[in-house]
Write a structure and sequence with these properties.
The complex is a heterotrimer of chains A (about 220), B (about 160) and C (about 240). Chain A is about 75% helix and about 0% strand. The relative contact order of chain A is 0.13. Chain A starts with a helix and ends with a helix. By secondary structure, chain B is of the alpha/beta class. Chain B has one domain: Phosphotransferase system, sorbose subfamily IIB component (Fructose Permease, 3-Layer(aba) Sandwich). Chain B has 6 helices and 9 strands; from the N terminus they run βαβααβαβαβββαββ. A 7-stranded mixed sheet of chain B has the order 3-2-4-1-5-8-9, sandwiched between helices. In chain B, strands 6-7 form a two-stranded antiparallel sheet. The N and C termini of chain B lie far apart (about 30 Å). By secondary structure, chain C is mostly helical. Chain C contains 10 helices and no strands. In chain C, helix 4 packs antiparallel against helix 5 and helix 5 runs parallel beside helix 8. The longest helix of chain C has about 40 residues. Chain C starts with a helix and ends with a helix. The chains are: A mainly alpha (about 220), B alpha/beta (about 160), C mainly alpha (about 240). Chains in contact: A-B, A-C, B-C. Chains B and C meet through helix 1 and helix 3 of B and helix 5, helix 7 and helix 8 of C.
Chain lengths: ~220, ~160, ~240
């Protein structure tokens, strides 16, 4: 069913929109792994896999603070591609491999952001004197052109990610013993990520107590269920 | 070591400073040195808003800054000093060389005659020269936007 | 469509023209244009105001509207240009610091942790939809609120922001976010997304321990993304080289 062109076009659209959501358009939660992963799973008819891949990558995303002009990864298309890769594999076996692939692509995709920003800067420089003179039409032209840059960036990132995922699907499936070890490594990495993120944001006094209380509350819920 | 960071950042107190520097380095006082802000009530009110609970904010003019720095140096507080311009930071450093042995360039952006040195550092030729002269007196100067990124030594910016 | 509504819609794409020199500068001008149209009878004043609006600016994107509104009100009431520039400069820091704390390390991790927790407890796709829906409403409401607050208060925006209680909310959201992220850890460990059974729980908790210790001991830790990719790559190399 993944050969269906309509399905791939839908995934491509979702992945492109997730790329735009990261910086340029609305900036809500579409670019978050668990959100876009669930949507991708739904499109592909396997929400379970979408949720699993999404949650694992979400742990890594919770270790990123996009403050200022620092560099950050772009998880949107990467998550969609990871879900596409793992749909249809024997239960759970491909989640670790898929998440590792998604993680790698998120870093590649994040590295394309500075490129669009450089392109934007070029447009701004071309129009600099008209902007300084308060030419409204120049403002509008610059802004839409730059939005176009990010749309192209998001589309290219999404197209390559999905293409790569389709290629990976053509390879023989990862043998189950290897897949299990990858699962363990990636899961431990996800734990590392969320703990690191939590500690980094808990470094002010009162947050510690709240974080410890949260850990305890979660453990209690697990114990009584 | 009461003066933990001395930073030049034209955005003054903002997210990178509060979240990036104050939290992990346990800063509990920010000294903002800027003549225009010191003279403007509404600007001070705004910067005060940016500072989270548990961190004090002192706003002084460049003239008052050296003596204020002496008072802070005597306290147990961990202080971050911030100026908007290279010139203001160099003036303060010259006035109290012993208290300011490390300067951090955190964000100096677009303007006339500025050349890009890093994505977040645009310096005029005069500023670059002045910073180099200060460094020759034994002060260490580097550009670093966040504590988690690698500091770039001044010589790589010249 | 009235000018405030058009400005609000434009604020949803305020970061599209982000550059390292001006950051949100051009985007702020783009969002300000509908509000500055009133000045068009006086082309010179209009051009001066638009030109100022394009200059360097950076804040949290959701709160940029506060600055757009306040500076537009200042321009419309004839405040001197230099004062408008200083207002924007002074607004950028607090709006950035507050917004980053309230959203990037507050509401976003909070909502994501609640979603992860709900999914782990079997909430499935509906819990994702509810979380995303709630967040989207808040995100849009903040932009509407911010622009209106700015437009209403102009140079008095500092007082208006202080009175709004935003600082107190920010502090509390941060605490709750810390709680929620920590709660999600044991829940997700129990859920076992990889289907590994007890081994999966142990692997996740070992990772949590190692990450926490690394973050506590050292200021600059290699990112969790690189650590994981290097571990995966290293294992694959070893696996294939030993046949």
């Amino acid at each position: 069913m993944i050969d269906s062109v309509g399905l791939l076009v839908t995934l491509l659209a979702v992945a492109t929109l997730a790329g735009l959501d990261l910086v340029s358009v609305v900036q809500s939660l579409l670019s978050r792994p668990v959100v876009v992963g669930t949507i991708a799973g739904w499109v592909l008819g396997d929400i379970g896999v979408g949720l699993r891949v999404g949650v694992v990558l979400e742990f890594f995303a919770l270790d990123v603070v996009p403050v200022g002009s620092s560099r950050y990864p772009d998880f949107g298309a990467a998550t969609v591609a990871a879900v596409l890769y793992s749909v249809g594999l024997p239960d759970g076996s491909g989640i670790g491999a898929a998440a590792a692939f998604g993680l790698g692509w998120a870093l590649v995709a994040g590295a394309t952001l500075p490129v669009t920003r450089r392109l934007n800067a070029r447009v701004v420089r071309t129009y600099a004197s008209r902007l300084a003179a308060g030419d409204s039409r120049a403002v509008v032209a610059v802004h839409w052109t730059c939005l176009g840059h990010d749309a192209v960036r998001s589309f290219v990132v999404a197209a390559f990610a999905l293409g790569l995922a389709l290629l990976l699907r053509e390879l023989p499936p990862v043998p189950s013993d290897l897949a299990n070890i990858l699962n363990v490594i990636v899961l431990a990495g996800a734990g590392w990520a969320i703990a690191h993120g939590a500690v980094a944001s808990a470094r002010t006094g009162p947050r510690w107590r709240w974080a410890v209380a949260g850990l305890g509350a979660g453990a209690v819920v697990v114990a009584i269920r | 070591m009461p003066i933990v960071v001395a930073r030049v950042d034209d955005r003054l107190v903002h997210g990178q400073v509060v979240i990036g520097w104050c939290r992990p380095l346990k800063i509990n006082r920010i000294l903002l040195v800027d003549d225009a802000v010191a003279a403007s009530e509404f600007e001070q009110e705004l910067y005060r808003m940016a500072v989270p609970e548990g961190i004090g904010l002192d706003v002084v003019s460049t003239g008052e800054a050296p003596e204020h720095l002496d008072r802070l140096a005597a306290l147990a507080d961990r202080t971050l000093v911030i100026t908007a311009t290279v010139a203001a930071m160099i003036a303060l450093q010259q006035a109290r060389p012993r208290l300011l042995q490390n300067l951090n360039l955190g964000g100096i952006h677009d303007g006339t005659d500025r050349r890009e040195r890093l994505r977040y550092i645009y310096l005029t030729a005069a500023e670059a020269e002045a910073l180099a002269a200060v460094e020759r007196t034994g002060v260490s100067i580097s550009a670093q936007d966040l504590p988690t990124t690698r500091p770039v030594p001044l010589e790589d910016l010249l | 469509m009235n000018s405030a509504l058009r400005s609000t819609l434009r604020l949803l794409v305020v970061q599209a023209s982000w550059t390292y020199e001006r950051l949100q500068g051009v985007g702020v001008a783009f969002a300000s244009l509908p509000l500055l149209e009133e000045l068009e009878q006086d082309p010179e004043r209009h051009r001066a105001a638009v030109g100022r609006a394009t200059e360097y600016f950076n804040a949290h994107p959701y709160l940029a509207g506060v600055a757009v509104g306040a500076s537009a009100k200042a321009e419309l009431t004839g405040v001197p240009g230099a004062t408008v520039q200083r207002l924007k400069t002074a607004l950028a820091g607090p709006l950035g610091a507050l917004g980053d704390q309230l959203f990037w390390i507050g509401a976003v991790p909070l909502v994501m942790a609640v979603i992860v927790g709900a999914v782990s407890l079997g909430g499935g796709a509906p819990s994702v939809a509810v979380g995303v829906g709630c967040y989207f409403v808040i995100r849009c409401a903040v932009t509407v609120w911010g622009l209106r607050l700015g437009l209403r208060s102009g140079l008095g925006v500092a007082r208006a922001l202080t009175d709004s209680g935003l600082q107190q909310i920010t502090h509390r959201v941060g605490l709750v976010a810390g709680f929620a992220v920590a709660t999600a850890i044991p829940l997700a460990a129990r859920w076992d997304p990889m289907g590994l059974g007890r081994g999966g729980t142990v692997a996740l908790l070992l990772g949590v321990g190692a990450g926490a210790v690394a973050a506590l001991v050292r200021q600059r830790v290699p990112s969790s993304r690189w650590v994981t990719l290097v571990a995966v790559g290293g294992y694959l190399l070893w696996h294939w080289s030993t046949g």
